[in-house]
TrEMBL record:
Keywords from the named record: Glycoprotein, Signal
Signal peptide: 1-21
Organism lineage: Eukaryota, Viridiplantae, Streptophyta, Embryophyta, Tracheophyta
Family of this protein: Belongs to the APS1/VSP family.
Annotated source species: Amborella trichopoda
Protein name (Swiss-Prot/TrEMBL): Acid phosphatase
GO molecular function annotations of the record: acid phosphatase activity
Top-rank lineage group of the source organism: Eukaryota
Length: 256
């Protein structure tokens, strides 16, 4: 993986340095035959898309050459439109395929960070993921209770609540951040959830995916039907038991 990335980066810099197309062809994979010239923007957009579709995993930092590009995307209208489009699909799903029973066991799960609350103001000061994660500093930001709501998430949240579906928030944040998290969520308009599930001592060292799947398992054992999950990380959406549908919000600043 690392070698492959290095090779691609090498190719990008060759093209950017203006090396002629025939040299590029020698290195380029077979089947294209057109001497495809790629720009840094092409390279970074393809990096971003491959993060979103979960081909590119476990990255520690956004590649140095894409920091500016990812920063632009995460603060763009496009990012908002992409998020809105994803959540529009939730609304569609809720309107078409739902046979709610009214027995109080219909449930929906939201992730918190960069799903309900936006940490973009924090990452703006940390190269949009181009800097290695400093948990102390990130938790300092979380304690500050200053994260804004993602507007389209707030409206979906209220729509789901209005249908009488029980909302559970399953977050990678630790229990020590409970007060700060509740305050921040309330402050920007999220109220009326049934459960806010945070990492306790017993969850220490578990991967995000395993931890979240275990919490869903508990809900299923309590008789809940999980109709949907909204999250910005694949670790919120994958694993057993799964929801009837999952919805992925864009986020290429980090992998958790
Ligand atoms: C991480 O952040 C804390 C708090 O801002 C800071 O004191 C510390 O030096 C940082 N650590 C690293 C390795 O940068």
């Amino acid at each position: 993986m690392r070698m492959h990335l290095a090779l691609v980066l090498g190719l990008v810099s060759l093209v950017l340095d203006g090396v002629c197309a025939s040299d590029w062809n020698i290195l380029h994979h077979k089947g294209d035959g057109k001497g495809l010239k790629i720009s840094l923007k092409n390279y970074c957009e393809s990096w971003r898309v491959n993060v979103e579709v979960h081909n590119l995993r476990d990255f520690e930092v956004v590649p140095h050459e894409c920091v500016e590009y990812i920063g632009k995307y995460m603060t763009s209208t496009q990012y908002k439109v992409d998020s809105e489009r994803a959540l529009e699909q939730c609304t569609l799903y809720l309107s078409q395929e739902f046979g709610l029973t009214g027995d109080g066991k219909d449930a929906w799960i939201f992730d918190v960070d960069d799903t309900l609350l936006s940490n973009i103001p924090y990452y703006k000061k940390h190269q949009y993921g181009g800097e290695k994660l400093n948990l102390t500093s990130l938790e300092g930001w979380m304690r500050g209770r200053k994260a804004p709501a993602l507007a389209s998430s707030l409206s979906l949240y209220n729509e789901i609540k209005g249908k009488g579906i029980k909302i559970f928030l399953i977050s990678n944040r630790g229990e020590h951040l409970r007060d700060a998290t509740v305050d921040n969520l309330f402050e920007v308009g999220y109220t009326g959830w049934t459960g806010l599930i945070l990492r306790g001592d017993e969850d220490c060292g578990k991967s995000a995916q395993k931890y979240k799947a275990e919490k869903r398992q508990k809900l299923v054992e309590e008789g809940y039907r999980i109709w949907g999950i909204v999250g910005d990380q694949w670790s919120s959406l994958l694993g057993h038991p799964h929801a009837t549908r999952t919805f992925k919000l864009p986020n290429s600043m980090y992998y958790a």
